Records
---
Amino acid sequence: MKKDISFKIKVYPQVDKFLKRLSKKDPLNLKQVMGSIREIEKEPYKYGFIQGSVKARKKRKGDYRIIYMVDDSTNPPEILIFQAEHRKKVYKNIEDLL
């Protein structure tokens, strides 16, 4: 029998700002992005890595991207969501965040 792993989600401040902005501008997409975060919480290893990175993963949802890493060194393991933004903006300055 496989034991389910429980993950703790840690959201960076810039992601909080993005979600607040999105809630005012586009509540429907906010709902979709929040659903994607719940999907990441259930299966964090399912989604692919960012090109050129061995740590950061991405989850696509329409025109939005969620960039995160899984930290297995903590107990419980953490999902660090450090970027969420429109696809045109999300990859700018990503190296600074890693």
---
Amino acid sequence: MIFSNPHRRIDRWIRENSSKVDFATGLAFTLLCLLLTATIGFSSSLLMTLSLVAISLMQTAPLMMRRARPWLATLIITFGHLLQLAFGGLVLPSQLSVPIMVYTMAVYGKRWQSFTTLGFGLLGALLATISMFNSGSSSAGGFTFISFDTMISFVGLALVVTVSWTFGDLARNRRLTMKALQDHADRLEKERVIERDLAAADERNHIAREMHDIVAHSLSVIITQADGARYAAVNDPEIAIDTLKTVSDTGRASLREMRRLLGVLRKDEEVENRPLPTLANVRDLVQNAETAGLAVEFGFTGSPRKELPAGAELTAYRSIQEALTNVVKHAGPNTAASVQLNWTSRGLELLIEDNGRGAGSLTLEGQGYGLKGMSERVALYDGTCNASPRTGGGFAVSVFIPYSED
């Protein structure tokens, strides 16, 4: 595996170290062109040789920064070729920098810079053709611009420039496409992370609400029954025995609920998964509250126009459970409560009231998690929840859950 896909590693290294690669290749090309230009210039005077070497240096040295400063490199190379025209129809090896820079600008330059460089290249091909052929015919005193050889030369140079620009433009489109695909993949990955975090947070909130409903309700009943059994054990042991049985049954039911939640977290199929409570289990909930010593009046009116979703029924059940739990915890002794379910044409209305004391500080904006969780549950189904002290004493919780209109 060490030597697998070496071309990919080389390509990645070149892309990651483009400045170093440009400097090294540009320097090597510059030195080679200077050597060849100096060799050509030996047949002329020393001044001509130095001039050609300087022009060659101007035409090749900018290649060392062709991707870092492509437009500046293009302007310097263009100026170098304009100087070359002053020396007639000489052909220098450094002129190979023209197709290189045309390709580079097509890949990395801005769009207007790319087309401008293409225009420079085509104009340079025309001027080079004129310079070469007119310098060859100057001794005869003629001007042979429009001739077959002239056209062939111009077409050949223009074709080199056009092909270089075309390949560069194709490489540019591929680079932009790959960048767009990479950006899209990065954006999708970020969205997946955000969605996963939101789903995890939502699940944690859901589990926290379930745990609060189970633990708070069950422990309230257990504590109330245990206190009653402690006092009854002195005068009437039989009542204490019945009370302790209620404590035991409530504890076992809570343990089953806890095991169900933990089974969902562990995805353990062997753990018992009891069905979630619905409105049909409200009577059992009321009986448990009565067993805890709370007098509860239960009633309902109307009939459902359509069934509520299972989650909405669970929300209604948990709202009643939370409200009765608060009555047991905060209302004090000798408290009576009422639970009313009213089916209307719009949905289900719940009203839980008591005549106790001690709940005056409880509101939806308070510090308790129970009422907040109740409000959040109801809001998931586009419902409303209000909890506030009653005029004259006691506390009232009203909940409305509308039908889901498909």
